[in-house]
């Protein structure tokens, strides 16, 4: 019920703002600023009610959980973490491996790997399944002398 009332208030506010804008365009505006502010209050109040209703449906452990804010890291630290992950995987990594091996989200890992590829730090291969494999040749294990001579 709270959600329905919230959406109704928000719709009423949007309608009121629309009326005030229409009056402004037609040149019959008397108290346009007050009308727009009042409409905005209705919209924000309605959306707050909707958010409150959704939050009330969450389990208590999620509802009362503190918001965790990750500290922003320097781009060098991010690159070091990705390179360390690649080194741990023998110089070949996928986006998912970087995301699970570092603090980065999947999207962030993809962006960093693409930047490193554009910078020439790695090459990208695509598997038959369509997965992107990022190869850091400088991080791959070196061949031993006898096996290098045989090749």
What this model shows, in words?
By secondary structure, the protein is mainly α. 62% of the residues lie in helices and 7% in strands. A three-stranded antiparallel sheet has the order 1-3-2. Helix 1 runs antiparallel to helix 2 (32-56). It is elongated, with a radius of gyration of 27 Å.
- Summed up, the helix count is 7
Helix-strand category: mainly alpha
Let me know the number of strands.
Answer: 3
Low-confidence runs of at least 5 consecutive residues = none
Provide the helix percentage: 55-70%
Name the shape in a single word.
elongated
Q: Alpha-carbon distance between the termini?
A: 74 Å
Report the order of strands and helices: HHHHEHHEEH
Topology:
Elements: H1 2-26, H2 32-56, H3 60-63, H4 75-88, E1 92-93, H5 95-101, H6 106-118, E2 123-126, E3 132-135, H7 145-150
What descriptors fit this protein?
single chain, 151 residues, mainly alpha, 3-stranded antiparallel beta sheet, 62% helix
How would you summarize this macromolecular structure in one to three sentences?
The protein has 151 residues and is mostly helical. It contains 7 helices and 3 strands, in the order ααααβααββα.
């Amino acid at each position: 019920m709270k959600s329905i009332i919230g959406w109704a208030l928000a719709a009423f506010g949007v309608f009121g703002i629309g009326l005030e804008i229409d009056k402004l365009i037609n040149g019959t505006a008397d108290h346009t600023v007050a009308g727009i502010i009042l409409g905005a209050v209705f919209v924000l109040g309605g959306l707050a009610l909707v958010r409150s209703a959704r939050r009330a449906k969450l389990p208590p452990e999620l509802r009362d959980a503190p918001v965790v804010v990750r500290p922003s890291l320097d781009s060098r630290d991010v690159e070091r973490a990705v390179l360390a992950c690649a080194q741990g995987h023998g110089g070949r990594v996928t986006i998912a491996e970087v995301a699970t091996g570092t603090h980065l989200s999947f999207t962030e890992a993809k962006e960093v790997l693409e930047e490193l590829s554009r910078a020439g730090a790695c090459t990208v291969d695509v598997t038959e399944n369509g997965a992107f494999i990022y190869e850091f040749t400088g991080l791959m294990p070196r061949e031993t002398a006898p096996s290098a001579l045989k090749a």
